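so the lab meeting is tmrw and i was supposed to have these ready like two days ago... anyway. pasting both below. for each one the top line is the aa sequence and the line under it is the structure tokens. i havent really looked at them closely yet so no promises
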Amino acid sequence: MAAITRRNFARAAGATALSYSRILGANDRVRIGYIGLGNRGDQVQDAFLEHGDQETVALCDLRDDYLDWAEAKERKRGLAPRRFKDYRKLLEIKDMDAVVICTPDHWHALQFIDACRAGKDVYVEKPLSLTVYEGRRMVEVARETGRVTQVGIHRRSAPFLIEAAEFVRSGGIGHVLVARGFHYRNEWPHGIGDPPDTNPPDEWEWDQWLGPAPKVPYNRNRTYYNFRWFYHYSGGQLTNFGVHYMDMLRWAMNLEWPKSVTAIGGKYAVEDNREIPDTLEVLWDYEGGHIINFSQCDCNMAPGNAQNAEMILRGTKGTMYIHFSHWEVVPEEINDRPRYPRSPVDREGERANRGRRVKLIEARRAKGSQDTAFHARNFLDCVKSRARCNCDILDGHISTAATLIGNIAHRTRSHLVWDGKAERFTNNEEANRWLHYEYRPPYKLS
């Protein structure tokens, strides 16, 4: 399979952004409003700008500099989108088809639900929610309102990864027993640092940034990108990176809910004011004989395996290694006879029954790109067709919830049995209290 890059993406999608602009009138374009434009919001905006059949009509963020940056990109295209600091005002715009939500995790549920009820289709970044209860309510409201939804787990739309998932689901590497995702980086010794609490630069902005989260003293590490290291706003690297791996692996293995989960780890080495672990191992057990593992180490960047893959799926016929821009399958050598019991008095019998080593599959390899522009393209197409997106709200919820219950297992130091239909633990009532939290007034999840 040929590599697909940002440069030749438009050709793979069927038309260039420029050709879309030429053949489609203003009424054929999907009119979009953006809520949250820092870091990932900036990247997702760029992904949508790859496509000429969309138009930015509004921008919303608490920071003027983020708004300025996003607006400058639109002005180069001859657009002058409206600016807001209150997302609810943005949702009042009538001539707007969809919104893109890239705010911190603890804001996703409120903004998503409000957008659905305002009649907008929604692209919401991963992880979908901060709690399992939020995610389930988001699914319910999306279905009640009939909105098109896409969760920003963008690997679902990458052609070379679609091929990888189809190969595994078709039995290409046999029965997959163990699948692993790796998140290794070296933040030792200082990590994100340990700044003191101070007065916020802007009291109103800090209050609005916190939203439904508890009111706590301002600390610059709690805001913007570094919020991911604090449980009030994020599930840490397990939900940040881990949800990508969880989703890809269960998608390829055709799995839904785990039947149990356990986790070990802690803050072992990094000297900063984070709350999340710097070292974490999580195991999910699935019906049918499948284990998924997430491995996090923030104190060492050496390859997690010989192939230095992001993910590994180990099947009875072979092993798939998934990298950022390619995947490969290494066949297993299978003995065509049962294993002979070793005995010091029967060496001849052991040699006679040793059998042949055979490979049941061939080695395979494919290259490609994980560019978010593929995912944006799929969302735009589904807004027009009303089909379900590649990572519809339910898929995003199941994958996100799996990582969230992994955090609960770690924080309660428990092996937890999970009922996916009821979305509750059956062996630990205390753990069920972690499935949601009480919002700070006046915020309510309805």
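ok protien two:
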Amino acid sequence: MQIFWLKRNLRLQDSVPFFLSMKASRSYGKVLPLYVHEPGLIAQPDVSRQHQAFISETLVELSTEFEALGGQLLQAIGETVSVLERIHRCSPITRICTHCETTQNAQYERDIAVRAWCREKEIELMEVEQNGVARGKQSLEAFAEYFSRAIGNSLKDPTGADLSQRFARLPFTSCAISDIPLAAGADKPGRQRGGRQAGQDILNNFFNVRNLSRYPSRISSPNTAWASCSRVSTYLAYGIVSDREVFQAVDRVVSIGHGTLTAPEFARLQNRARFFLDRLNWRRQYLQVFESHPHVETRCMLPQFDGVREAEFDEGLFLAWSTGRTGIPYIDAAMRCLRDCGWINMRLRATLVSFATMNCWLPTHRVAQLLATEFLDYEPGIHHVIHQIVSGTSDFQALMIYDPMKQARDHDPQGQFIRRWVPELADLSGAEVHELARTAGCHSRIAEDLGHGPYPAPVVDCKLTAKSAKSRIHALKNGFPDPGRDSGGANTSSPQLGLI
């Protein structure tokens, strides 16, 4: 019997492991689809209830898809090696087919344990690469070639097939949903729903000439990004849709534009398509960096930063930032929106991380771990690398300090986003929400009815703390003594690096 092992690759469409296992059912035996609810992973500090609920919704749809093909999905509780051992005793396993994944260290250690178990039992383990990430001695393919190959492939979709003769019977009954250990935290009311149908809706509805044409100009403001970003990141993170499906969706839009637009209009569309594909290229690059440097999940990429922020950790600042009570309206609106919805746009994410690690000087890994639980589209290989870049602890040359006041004025000039998520400021009109002298102590009737107290004064001076952070990071990167250690973080000298 073969195992088709589903981890963070929760799809049947464009699933090479599923296709290969089905194709080889006569040689290796019938196929048992398997998902394991692992208590050890569920208890990890970067896993939250919203992640688990999203996966649960996805598994419900997957189960229905398998049944339509003539099979059943086995869901089991336990550590993966123990579950595999139990299956193997019931019906000997000949081969396990799955995706090779670039994910957090806890899951990577799980994968190592499964490889060792397979060697011991002399079971073939087929791990199929994805996302164009190279592992070990593999050479990394240039993005242009990877993209061209992806759009030229015919992607397998088993929908509508009768594969009942190729599926194995369940060796034992699937677990009861009520028995699955619950992850920490609470579900988010405004998050995206799990399942292939939701991912397919994005592929069908977002990828058209109109949306791709206006994408670059509307993704920076939280007032327009909600409807103008593709929102496909969550479905990519859980492998509900593949990157190749997204590439082909972009390519279809460009092909449609070629046949319907004037030459100047088509040239503009091509530029905007490249802009979108640049983000997918960044995604692949971040995954590759994490594949090659997995230690960035727990340590700084540049070792001279290890322990620096930790030595000055301020619990009060961390609490204010993580609960949306910093007294900086744009930051608090971002955090409160995230806590409710599990998503904010890319620029707002960078601003939130920059404020935490630069203005509040909070440890990069404490910030990254907290936000891992808040982002529904948390993908470890991307998440941890970006946090290192924004916090200045990577070898990325440019220093990315986002002035939250400038970001607010540029991207929420009339304060619509702020007033939506910070009701204490509901009585302030227009740009008044950007005047910190007026926001401190504000307490609208709406906020009082919702149980909010008066709005706090700013916990830090954004300009002074940014200047100090730039000075300290510049010194540490260039091998000089850390000026903040001698001055309690109050040093205000800085290199000529402007705020974004």
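from a quick look at the 2nd one: Residues 2-130 form a domain with the Rossmann fold fold (CATH 3.40.50.620). Residues 263-292 form the longest helix (30 residues). will dig more after coffe
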